[in-house]
Structure formats: structure tokens, C-alpha cells
Amino acid sequence: MSGGVDSSVAAALLVEQGYEVIGLMLRLWAEQGGGANRCCTPDAVNDARRVANALGIPFYVRDYKDVFKSTVVDFFIDGYARGVTPNPCIVCNRDIRFDRLLKEAMSLGGDYLATGHYARVRQAEDGSYQLLRGLDPSKDQSYMLYTMTQDRLAHLLFPVGEHHKNVIRQIAKDKNLPVFNRPDSQDLCFLGPGDYRSFLYRNAPDVVQSGPILDTAGKQLGEHQGLAFYTIGQRRGLGLSAPQAMYVIEKNTQTNSLIVGSKEDLGQMTLTAHEVSYVGQPPAEPIDIKAKIRYKSREMGSKLIPLADGRVQLVFDTPLGGITPGQAVVFYQGDVALGGGTIEKAGV
Questions:
Q1: Among this protein's residues, is 89 annotated catalytic?
Q2: pTM score above 0.85
Q3: Candidate list 39, 40, 89, 92, residue with the active-site label
Q4: Which domains does the chain have, with CATH numbers?
Q5: pLDDT below 50 — which residues of the chain?
Q6: Would you state the pLDDT for residue 34?
Q7: Strands across the sheet containing 247-252
Q8: Is 92 a catalytic residue?
């Protein structure tokens, strides 16, 4: 329970269905002197406790500050130091929420861990478990959950994934839950004042050194403020004056250079992903899939080709821009999320 509307309604729906429910909230790392983590502020703790009291369920707060810092926050900082764009939420789901917290829930005698994610779990005819998109396409979070394994899915419940967000808010209002109108969280939970750029300035100043902006021929066009502040495919905010629109196409950490080019330079037909995880059995042969290279990106038709070392190559139906090393690429067939991996590089 986070004190938000989604996890609160998830708990309420399970109580309504006859489950014996225990509320758990995680106290996570926050910057020294920066106050509480955005997702576990004193107000959020109080809101979650009020919801638990209204539902008549026990409520406990667990201290995960140190493991969250070493597992999620340090991963985030290290990614930018290596010149990639990390996705800490996927690591948090994989290593904190659906590993450590799931084990803790089981140790308390629980049969399931339930969260407020907009996703669904379905058991197939052969007994295996499938991860499905949430019914609300605008809120679907299956992208963030592609690392879920069969063992984990057997013990997971996503009650709100069967509903649209407006229905969830109405349920909260109808049940007189005190958080029915609480706004959705919008940014990384561990950020203090400002955005991720100011966080890196405060916590990893070495990764935000200025350097040259070069075109694909090596000509300097300007100066960047730190590679961490740019992402592949970015067009705005480059501070360049050029006869055509310029896009970020590469970040060279060896020379601390930002490489820019035309939209045609940006498009790629392939990517390679490593750290690949499958919800079910890995494919033995190439298969046709739909791929998402970012949480909010549109899907692209592609062929997934398994490689001998456990990595995969994706070949897209049409050139795709914005392929960003460090971000996740997730594989779908229809509503089923097959798995995903971390983008290693674009192109061959």
C-alpha cells in the first residue's frame, strides 16, 4: 500500500472478495536532508493507515531504505555514469517489490502479494501463467513487469488491472476511501527537490560534465551540459542553430561527446538487447512480435531473433528512432507480454 488510490482500491476489492488482507508499506531511501521519499511521505503513510483502518485490516510499515539505495538508486546513478538511460522502476519491481517484498509476504503466511499495478495475470490451459496488459490502455503497466517469472506470477494479484482508471476512482469514492481524489504520482519516487537532473547534480556531479556537440562528420556544433541530460531521439533543448532539425543519435562517453544528426540518421532497423527475461518458455526460433522500446511508446512490428548467448536481436518492419541503450524493450503478442530485455545497442 502506497497511500494512493490504486493500491487502496486493490486492497478494498480483495476484502470485498473475501480475502484476508494485510497492508504493507515500504519506507524507502530519501536524500539526506531532503525529507521523505516521494512515495512514502508521512502524509502517504497516514493515508495508507487511514485506508487500512477503514477496511478493517492490519497495516505495517517495513524499512527497505538501505536495500533500495544499494539496489535501485545506485543502479540509476551508475547507468548515467555509463552513458545509458536506466529504468530504475523495472529494477525495483524485479529486485525489491516482487522479490524481497514477495518473500516477506510469504513469510507472513500470505498466499499472494497484491499491488495496484494496471496489469493482469491469467492461467493458461497448460497451467502456465501469462502476464497480460491492463484493461485500461492509457494506464497499462505490463511494460514495467516483464521480469515476472512463473514462480512469481503464481503468487501475484493485480485487482485494478481489470478496470479502467476512472472506474477505480469511482470505486474509491463509493467506498468512502479517503484517497479517492489523490493525484497520481508522476516522477521517480526517490527524487528530491527538482527533477532527475538536479538529483544527479547533487548526488553524482561527475556524470554531468559539459562537452562538445558533434555532427556525424565530427564537426562541433555547440556544447552540451552533461550527457546525462540528453536522451536518444531528443530534438528540443539542444541549443543549436541549424538549417534542419537535429536529433540526438549517440552519447559517446569515451570522448564525452553528444552526437547529433538528421531524422534519417536516427532511424534504425534493428536493436540488440541483453539481460533478457521471459515470462514463459524462451522461443527456440525467430518469432513475430510487437515491441515497445519505452513505457509510453507505440508498439512496432518486429521479428525477435534469439541469439546463442542469451541476447536477442529485433528486426523492425520499418525504421525506428529513439532506440535508447539502458531502456527496456518489451515483447508482446496481442495482450500477452512475453518478456523483455535491456537495450544494448541500436543497429547491427
A1: no
A2: yes
A3: 92
A4: 5-174 (3.40.50.620), 209-265 (2.30.30.280), 267-346 (2.40.30.10)
A5: none
A6: 57
A7: 220-224, 211-215, 257-261, 247-252
A8: yes
Catalytic residue among 39, 40, 89, 189: 189
